[in-house]
Write a structure and sequence with these properties.
Keywords: Hydrolase. The protein contains eleven helices and eight strands. By secondary structure, the protein is α/β, with parallel strands linked by helices. The protein has a single domain, classed as Alpha/Beta hydrolase fold, catalytic domain (Rossmann fold). Strands 1-2-4-3-5-6-7-8 form an eight-stranded mixed sheet, with helices on both faces. 50% of the residues are buried. The structure holds the ligand O=C(O)CCC(=O)CC(=O)O.
Length: 266
């Protein structure tokens, strides 16, 4: 178990794979912790690549400083963790909120980032009314109050028939309500359209055909901002295709890494 003091937040992080390998950093979505990536990591090679993941502040085992947060704080946490671990030229895989962190970090510290996978995310997600409504609901009734609706957005119809759904619902409802709300404020205040349009780096988007949070059109539009970016649509998956379709997710990720020689170019 690893714990890093990022200043006003303490971050829980984990490392897998080859300690001497090329770094791949994973960043989670709202309401999840670093276990989000378990199924994908099981399918990735043990040699040549070093996998780093962490719990965003307000989530998992990381601390939950008083909110609201700005996206800048979430980006700075990640920057500090990567500096602490002396990571350079990493491929950064960010899902939803994690994808916003990826965009901001690439704009701020391109030296840290060799390429980005922007999964189930956008340059801007939702609008102020939508986020304020959800923050109010959680303030009044806790995360439980929004959990069923969230499962509808996160997972495909078929996944709702599985017993596993309850596990992910538990992950959501066991997050800190204060941390969850504080991160919603960060997303609500984020619009990356202008800055992401200036990014020039290898990039791939991943969307889920049944994503009720960040639908395929939103991801396609985002990838249209970055010249040369790839785009993959994963069918039979909602907002978390790394959970529902980990084989395909790992295959797309490996294809992207291979296409830029990450982990194979010495
Ligand atoms: O998943 C995220 O990081 C933000 C997008 C969202 O609202 C997810 C959800 O529907 O709960």
């Amino acid at each position: 178990m690893n714990w890093f003091d990022a200043g006003d937040a303490q971050l829980h992080w984990r490392e897998d794979g080859d300690p001497d390998g090329a770094p791949v950093v994973f960043s989670n979505s709202l309401g999840t912790d670093l276990r989000l990536w378990d199924f994908v990591l099981e399918r990735l090679p043990k040699k040549g690549l070093r996998y780093i993941r962490y719990d965003t502040r307000g989530h998992g085992l990381s601390s939950s400083p008083d909110g609201p947060y700005g996206m800048g704080a979430l980006i700075t946490d990640t920057e500090r963790l990567m500096d602490h671990l002396e990571l350079k030229d990493a491929v950064f895989v960010g899902l939803s909120m994690g994808g916003m962190i990826a965009q901001g970090l690439a704009v701020k510290r391109l030296d840290l980032i060799r390429g980005v996978v922007l999964s189930n995310t956008g340059a801007k997600i939702g609008n102020a009314d939508m986020w304020n409504e959800r923050i109010d609901a959680v303030t009044a009734g806790g995360i439980e109050a929004v959990a069923d609706a969230t499962m509808e957005r996160w997972f495909s119809k078929a996944f709702h028939e599985t017993a596993e759904l309850q596990m992910w619902r538990n992950m959501l409802t066991r997050q800190s309500a204060e941390g969850y709300n504080a991160c919603m404020s960060a997303i609500a205040g984020t619009d990356m359209i202008t800055v992401t349009s200036g990014l020039r780096l290898p990039a791939m988007g991943i969307a889920g055909s049944e994503d009720g949070s960040t639908p395929p059109d939103m991801v396609r539009e985002l990838m249209g901002l970055i010249p040369g970016a790839g785009y993959e649509l994963i069918r039979k998956a909602g907002h978390l295709p790394c959970v529902e379709q980990p084989d395909l997710y790992a295959q797309h990720l490996m294809r992207f890494l291979d296409s830029i020689g990450h982990g194979t170019d010495g």
